[in-house]
Amino acid sequence: MLRYDIDFQVSDYFAVQNVYLEDIISDGQRLFVRTSGGPSTVPTLRVENAYVTGTPPSRTNIAAAPFSGTGVITYEQRFTTRGTPLSDPTSPPSSPVFTILTPAPSPSGTTYVRFNISQELIARGVSGRLVGGDIPNVGGAPQNNNPPLFGPTRGRITFYTEVKDEFSDDFPSGDRSVDQLDILRNTVPQIRGEQIDTTTINNPTPTVIGQATDDTAASIELPIGDRSKTIYALNGQTTDLGDPVTVQPGDLVTYRLTYRLPISSFEDVQFIDFPPLPVFPVPDRLFFDASAAPGTIPGANMVSRGPNDTYLTTVNPPVTVRVATTGNITGYNPAGIGSFSGAPSIIDGVTLGER
């Protein structure tokens, strides 16, 4: 689950009304709106120094709370519904807060969301106008005070997306799975409002003098795992190996390769190892013993699972003997896998015994 916080602020010298924010959620993630069965993930809005018209006019803080006005969030599906939870929304919007548009005719994999900030403020009992902190409540020219008359006029929209196992439409790599090093994006092409004459901010119908716009964006790259290589055993013993480890001709040295995955979703993974030639002669292939229990010390030129393995043991267990060819370098895919999605795991103890 990803949480997005979009912050916005009005210049101390500007006043705006009819403010809305447009958001584009990239493929590989879907807006997640839960209204029951757990903590609410309905998008929320908070605003500091929201303008209140009246006699006299004033400012107020609007606490963070879910959007509640009818139809104040517009939702348009721009992705293909594939009929699978791997890419379809798990908890799509359905409450009266949302105006659901007909899905776009040309899917791009994205989701379009428009937040009507001013209408939501009106639903909460204020004017829907955002007035800069250096403008008097009764209206007039900015005062150029330092500090301003009031604090900053600013707000935040918060919403959640669920990272899916697969892309629906847009995956330039050619691999549909959402996995390590893929980039998920969120773009705000515009936040827009009508700029109003600061002398008319308390009028029933303020004078519009222009448009105020801004944009922003954020992205996240799915993390890649970290790897390590250690000496696991010497002549079948895993303890008291010495520091440094001393070997002599005829010793059997077992190496341990560990790859810790923040997410068990990846593609085209290989372990490339450089055995210490010519001290250890390497044959043209190594054999992976799928039946050996994790932590089993393999024989010479054999491979088995290490003691802390979770991926090959529980997530994607191999069931047959696999062969890794060797040369000056060794490329080895122990599970014969292309991609898989799941929780964090460890590929541990892809251990090589060499005499």
Could you explain the architecture of this structure?
With 355 residues, this protein is mostly beta strands. It folds into 2 domains: 220 residues, no CATH class; 129 residues, no CATH class. Helix content is 3%, strand content 40%. The chain has 2 helices and 21 strands. Strands 2, 6, 7, 8, 9, 11 and 12 form a 7-stranded mixed β-sheet that branches. Strands 13, 14, 16, 17, 18, 20 and 21 form a 7-stranded mixed β-sheet that branches. A hairpin with a 5-residue loop joins strand 4 and strand 5. The protein is elongated. The protein starts with a strand and ends with a strand. About 5% of the residues have low confidence.
Q: Summary?
A:
This protein is mostly beta strands.
Radius of gyration: 30 Å
How large a portion of the residues is in β-strands, by DSSP E?
35-45%
Order of secondary-structure elements: EEEEEEEEHEEEEEEEEEHEEEE
Number of domains: 2
Largest sheet: 7 strands, mixed
Structural class: mainly beta
Helix content: under 10%
Low-confidence stretches: 327-342
Oligomer: single chain
**Mean pLDDT, rounded to whole units?**
86
**Bulk shape:** elongated
Number of helices: 2
| Termini separation | 48 Å
Strand runs, count: 21
Overview features:
355 residues; 7-stranded mixed sheet; 2 domains; elongated; mainly beta; 2 helices; single chain; 3% helix
How is the secondary structure organized here?
Elements: E1 2-10, E2 15-25, E3 29-31, E4 44-52, E5 58-66, E6 73-78, E7 98-100, E8 110-116, H1 117-123, E9 130-131, E10 153-163, E11 183-196, E12 208-221, E13 226-234, E14 253-261, E15 271-273, E16 285-288, E17 302-304, H2 311-315, E18 322-325, E19 330-332, E20 345-348, E21 351-354
Parallel strand pairs: 6-7, 16-17
Antiparallel strand pairs: 1-10, 2-8, 2-9, 2-11, 3-10, 4-5, 4-10, 6-8, 11-12, 13-14, 14-20, 14-21, 15-19, 16-18, 17-21
